[in-house]
Design a protein that fits this description.
Elements: H1 14-22, E1 33-43, H2 58-69, E2 72-76, E3 79-84, E4 91-94, E5 100-103, H3 110-131, E6 133-136, H4 155-167, H5 171-177, E7 180-185, H6 190-210, E8 216-217, E9 220-221, H7 227-232, E10 240-241, H8 253-262, E11 267-270, E12 273-276, H9 282-287, H10 300-307, E13 311-312, E14 314-316, E15 320-326, H11 330-344, H12 347-357, H13 362-375, E16 380-381, E17 384-385, H14 386-404, H15 419-427, H16 431-440, H17 450-453
Parallel strand pairs: 10-13
Antiparallel strand pairs: 1-5, 1-6, 1-7, 2-3, 3-4, 4-5, 7-15, 8-9, 11-12, 14-15, 16-17
Subunit structure: Homodimer or monomer when oxidized or reduced, respectively.
Protein name: Glutamate--cysteine ligase
Family: Belongs to the glutamate--cysteine ligase type 2 family. EgtA subfamily. Belongs to the carboxylate-amine ligase family. Glutamate--cysteine ligase type 2 subfamily.
Length: 456
């Protein structure tokens, strides 16, 4: 998230929280997709991590990107912590360990997404080369320990760093050592949101399997194909997971709001100060009885910021965030967006996807979520392999993209952006498995070659 929301309008009733989410509804012609991806920077000379300060640090990288793009700096306590394209809607932000993130603008189609991502990568590579910095296309930092990983100067991250060990054993690894790719999708109504949320929650482990790309930690194989996904299984369980309640009768905006209200807060921001209220109840802030800030009442900013600290496999804000995939190269990033666009933005594909998953029980979905980080395409659900389910989901997505009929300047539709994922599923070998083959073969039991071969 590039920057926290600033809207001091007081919240007077629970209904306003529901209305805030409902205000995201858009007619089909206004639907857009926004692609976000993170990447781990490193010094090419010695493969060491990139700190914030110094003449060739993250701050210098941000300064170079500002000069190259003209985007406005986002500041905190005198430090640039991101950049914003106030005209186009995109932004650059820093994750806790220096992961460099592009939050893409809301775009009409996958061709635009591919162009945006390619342009960003060209910019960041050009600036990075001047500083001797490269960027990994892996879902987890493969070499450095958590203690060797730098820390970015953002107050919300300091609060989260102190809180994470209280609520799970792997939250700090999530913060400092993982990299993801996400796509944000619109909905037309509450019913449309519910259907899309249920389908995407059920299929999120399928996407995790297809895009598994984090098999190394601390310089060796970690026993998983998506260690990033496994880490989320023991990261602050109050705010993570498969949200089984979303499949219950009557689920909608109100039920999600009630869940969010019961998730403990991390912070409350007043002016430029982040107040650590970790573990406190938003309901107390809403009622003006928060012990850490007596008399303070919730504002729209507080609600928007709180919702941004919820981390289920699919997150509902004023759009839906698909959160299950490891980052990878350019084709990998755009293919993730293609997968979900084909499924969720075509009614026939969405209906087909619901038929594919509707009979799965909450227990089956949770078991799948637990197995996929280690087994990926070889995991099973309801007597079928994930590879088979992925093949069906990809076929639905391809047909949905064909019906969208969004053509590029060469007359090609969006299905070309799905080919990367289709080839993985057809082969039955994830990118993580291919990396492990390299590790045990040509790389000679070392992960350092990844810093040459798996870079943007």
């Amino acid at each position: 998230m590039a920057r926290d929301v600033s809207d001091t309008t007081p919240i007077g009733a629970r209904s306003e929280l529901v209305e805030w989410i409902a205000s995201g509804e858009k007619p089909r012609e206004s639907w857009r997709l926004g692609t976000e991806h993170e990447k781990v920077p490193f010094y090419r000379a010695d493969l060491s991590p990139v700190p914030y300060d110094g003449g060739r640090g993250i701050r210098a990288l941000l300064d170079g990107m500002q000069e190259r793009t003209g985007w406005a700096p986002i500041m905190e306590d005198g430090h640039p912590i991101g950049l914003a394209d106030d005209g186009g809607g995109g932004a650059i932000s820093l994750e806790p360990g220096g992961q460099f993130e592009l939050s893409g603008a809301p775009l009409a189609n996958l061709h635009d997404t591919a162009r945006e991502t390619a342009q960003h990568l060209a910019d960041v590579k050009a600036v990075g080369e001047q500083l001797g910095i490269g960027f990994l296309t892996l879902g987890m930092s493969p070499l450095w320990t958590r203690g060797q990983t730098p820390v970015m100067p953002k107050a919300r991250y300091r609060i989260m760093t102190n809180y994470m060990p209280k609520v799970g054993s792997l939250g700090l690894d999530m913060m400092y050592r993982t990299s993801t790719v996400q796509v944000n999708m619109d909905y037309a109504s509450e019913a449309d949101m519910v259907k899309k949320l249920r389908v995407s929650l059920a299929l999120q482990p399928i996407a995790t399997a297809i895009f598994a790309n984090s098999p190394f930690t601390d310089g060796k194989p970690n026993g998983y194909l998506s260690m990033r996904s496994n880490i989320w299984l023991d990261t602050d369980r109050d705010r993570t997971g498969m949200m089984a309640f979303a499949f219950e009768e009557g689920f909608g905006y109100e039920r999600y709001v009630d869940w969010a209200l019961d998730v403990p807060m991390y912070f409350v921001k007043r002016d430029s100060t982040y107040h650590d209220v970790s573990g406190a109840s938003f309901r107390d802030l809403f009622a003006g009885r928060l012990a850490q800030l007596p008399g303070e009442r919730a504002t729209r900013s507080d609600w928007a910021n709180h919702v941004s600290t919820l981390f289920p496999e699919v997150r509902l804000k004023r759009y839906l965030e698909m959160r299950g995939a490891d980052v990878g190269n350019l084709e990998h990033i755009v293919a993730l967006s293609a997968f979900w666009t084909g499924l969720l933005y075509d009614d026939t594909a969405l209906d087909g996807a619901w038929e594919l998953v509707k009979a799965w029980s909450a227990e089956q979905r949770q078991q799948l979520r637990a197995e996929v980080p280690r087994q990926a395409l070889k995991a099973t659900i309801a007597g079928r392999s994930v590879q088979d389910v992925a093949r069906d989901a990809l076929a639905l997505s391809r047909a949905g993209l064909q019906r969208r009929a969004c053509l590029d300047e060469a007359g090609r539709d969006e299905t070309r952006h799905l080919v990367y994922a289709e080839e993985i599923v057809a082969s039955g070998r994830t990118q993580a498995e291919r990396l492990l083959e390299r590790y045990h073969g040509a790389w000679g039991g070392l992960v350092k070659p990844a810093f040459d071969e798996n870079v943007f």
